[in-house]
């Protein structure tokens, strides 16, 4: 597609790396500018992304960058405002219980004492949330293990597709009974060019995009997040067993079964990531 003396021909992996880099950069920019912090511990801190978004909105007159802020629906246990109101009500009830019915009214509490009581009640009703809970550690471990072997599989698959096919060799194994056993060895790959390997990976990526909004929600809805996750863990090792034997098949059926094998691994990986996030 490019001239032999162009930079794209000299550095053949520059164009796909630039495409991936642009996607990652746009994702980082969108999350930094458009997403607000919702964690109750960090929500009060200054957010540089929000400040930059507001500056861009003022610079472009709110036309290019919208200053409209979408509000998030807080979960009941994370509704800090409701907790604060409950704490204030408890504080009023405590004052009412400690105020004598008869006799001269007691002098009002000082602001420091009231603030101390309010802080103590707030700590009891809303303890500081713990970030690295056992559930978060399990989530990080699950995603890490899925990513580790997925990336390793992708790297090995590219080499596997480019390796030249091995010629079957016959070996005679002698035994004490003077009987020979013929064995065949097929340790090569498909011997495909970079062009065809790119098309195969493109078909794999298109399949991943197609099943994300269609098949994956249906599977998880039928099996449940935990059931689908256990199914992924059970089928993943089986999916790797047949891959090394595919080059021994005729070329056309071998490529077709290879695409099915890659699609199966893509489906398992996608379901595993979603289920891990849900759980």
Describe this structure in words.
The chain is built from 9 helices and 2 strands. The chain is mostly helical and 279 residues long. Among the domains are: 77-125, no CATH class; 134-278, no CATH class. Strands 1-2 form a two-stranded antiparallel ribbon. The chain is flat, with a radius of gyration of 31 Å.
Helix proportion range: 55-70%
Tell me what portion of residues adopts beta-strand conformation.
under 5%
Say how many strands there are: 2
> What is the overall pLDDT average?
76
Run of helices and strands: HHHHHHEEHHH
Main sheet record: 2 strands, antiparallel
Treating each run of at least 4 consecutive H or I residues as one helix, how many helices?
9
- Radius of gyration over alpha carbons? 31 Å
Structural class: mainly alpha
Unreliable spans are: 170-178, 180-186
Envelope shape: flat
Distance between the termini: 46 Å
What topology, given as strand order, has the largest sheet?
1-2
Summarize this entry quickly:
Helix content is 62%, strand content 2%.
Helices and strands, with pairings:
Layout: H1 7-10, H2 14-34, H3 48-59, H4 80-98, H5 111-125, H6 134-162, E1 171-173, E2 181-183, H7 194-211, H8 215-241, H9 251-278
Antiparallel strand pairs: 1-2
């Amino acid at each position: 597609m490019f001239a032999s003396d162009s930079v794209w021909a000299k550095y053949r992996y520059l164009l796909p790396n630039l495409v991936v880099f642009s996607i990652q950069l746009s994702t980082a920019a969108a999350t930094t500018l458009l997403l607000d912090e919702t964690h109750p511990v960090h929500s009060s801190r200054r957010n540089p992304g929000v400040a930059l978004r507001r500056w861009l909105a003022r610079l472009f007159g709110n036309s290019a960058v919208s200053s409209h802020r979408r509000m998030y629906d807080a979960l009941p246990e994370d509704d800090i405002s409701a907790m604060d109101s409950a704490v204030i009500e408890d504080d009023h009830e405590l004052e009412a219980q400690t105020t004598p019915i008869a006799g001269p009214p007691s002098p009002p509490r000082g602001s420091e004492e009231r603030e101390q009581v309010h802080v103590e009640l707030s700590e009891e009703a809303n303890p500081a949330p713990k970030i690295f809970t056992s559930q978060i550690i399990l989530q990080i471990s699950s995603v890490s293990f899925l990513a580790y072997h997925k990336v390793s599989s992708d790297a090995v698959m590219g080499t596997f597709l480019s390796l030249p096919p091995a010629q079957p060799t016959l070996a005679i194994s002698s035994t004490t009974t003077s009987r020979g056993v013929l064995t065949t060895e097929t340790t090569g790959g498909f011997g495909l060019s970079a062009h065809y390997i790119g098309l195969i990976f493109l078909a794999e990526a298109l399949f991943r995009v197609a099943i994300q909004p269609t098949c994956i929600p249906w599977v998880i809805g039928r099996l449940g997040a935990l059931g689908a996750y256990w199914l992924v863990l059970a089928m993943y090792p089986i999916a790797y067993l047949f891959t090394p034997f595919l080059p021994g098949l005729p070329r056309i059926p071998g490529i077709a079964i290879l695409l099915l094998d890659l699609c199966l691994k893509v489906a398992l990986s996608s379901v595993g990531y979603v289920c891990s996030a849900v759980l």
